[in-house]
Amino acid sequence: MRAAVLVFPGSNCDRDVAVALRAAGAQVEMVWHKETELPGGTDLVALPGGFSYGDYLRCGAIAAQSPICGAVARHAERGGYALGICNGFQVLTEMRLLPGALMRNAGITFLCRTEVLIVGTAESDFTSGYSAGQEIALPVAHHDGNYAASEAELDRLEGEGRVAFTYAENPNGSARDIAGVLSENRRVLGLMPHPERAVDTAHGGTDGQAVFRSLVGALADA
Ligand SMILES: NC(=O)CC[C@H](N)C(=O)O
């Protein structure tokens, strides 16, 4: 499986995602945001966490206008996979590849701690390594993680089984406790928690590993 990890000015989890993907068996290339094409044969685009463009305007809003994002949109249109973690999730909503928006945390403060999540669905190539209803622990680190969408959109996400993860104890005010959502074709996942920060026992937990292993397993022959 070939993965492209995007790097924006202010990304700070790009290398962590690359390490997690490589450990799961992926071939990884780092791609600077000024590129206009993805490397040939890219199966998965990973949009990492961080503070792209210093979070000016809105988190992810400027990064979503980067030259590389045109290529990401075309990749997704062709049915390619994309994984947006934290700031990457914010970029994917700004690009409208995922519904909704990430607003300021309800408590205003930056949250940096480990949260218990509930897996909403195992029916995706990102979550097939978990079981629905499973509780996992992943770190969060954000100030704009408060997921918002219209009631109709939220009903649709839930009805179509596209809520990938919810918080056991909602830390940021997210609508319906949502921590991560899937696109309609289930090939784009955005989530605020950081699975790449939980892939090694030295991280204090390995509950994030299944995301990367599920993907590599599903795309092994791709
Ligand atoms: N860790 C991250 O990716 C943080 C995303 C964004 N800068 C926020 O604070 O909400």
Automatic annotation (TrEMBL):
Alphabetical list of InterPro entries matching this protein: Class_I_gatase-like, PRibForGlyAmidine_synth_PurQ
Q: Where in the cell is it found?
A: Cytoplasm
Keyword check for rRNA processing, yes or no.
no
Q: Which reaction does it catalyse?
A: N(2)-formyl-N(1)-(5-phospho-beta-D-ribosyl)glycinamide + L-glutamine + ATP + H2O = 2-formamido-N(1)-(5-O-phospho-beta-D-ribosyl)acetamidine + L-glutamate + ADP + phosphate + H(+); L-glutamine + H2O = L-glutamate + NH4(+)
Annotated GO MF terms: ATP binding; glutaminase activity; phosphoribosylformylglycinamidine synthase activity
Pathway info = Purine metabolism; IMP biosynthesis via de novo pathway; 5-amino-1-(5-phospho-D-ribosyl)imidazole from N(2)-formyl-N(1)-(5-phospho-D-ribosyl)glycinamide: step 1/2
One Gene Ontology BP term is: 'de novo' IMP biosynthetic process
Name a GO CC annotation attached to this entry: cytoplasm
- Mind listing the UniProt keywords for this protein, alphabetically? ATP-binding, Cytoplasm, Glutamine amidotransferase, Hydrolase, Ligase, Nucleotide-binding, Purine biosynthesis
Membrane as UniProt keyword: no
Q: What does this protein do?
A: Part of the phosphoribosylformylglycinamidine synthase complex involved in the purines biosynthetic pathway. Catalyzes the ATP-dependent conversion of formylglycinamide ribonucleotide (FGAR) and glutamine to yield formylglycinamidine ribonucleotide (FGAM) and glutamate. The FGAM synthase complex is composed of three subunits. PurQ produces an ammonia molecule by converting glutamine to glutamate. PurL transfers the ammonia molecule to FGAR to form FGAM in an ATP-dependent manner.
What's the subunit arrangement here?
Part of the FGAM synthase complex composed of 1 PurL, 1 PurQ and 2 PurS subunits.
**What protein is this chain from?**
Phosphoribosylformylglycinamidine synthase subunit PurQ
Q: Which organism is it from?
A: Rhodosalinus sediminis
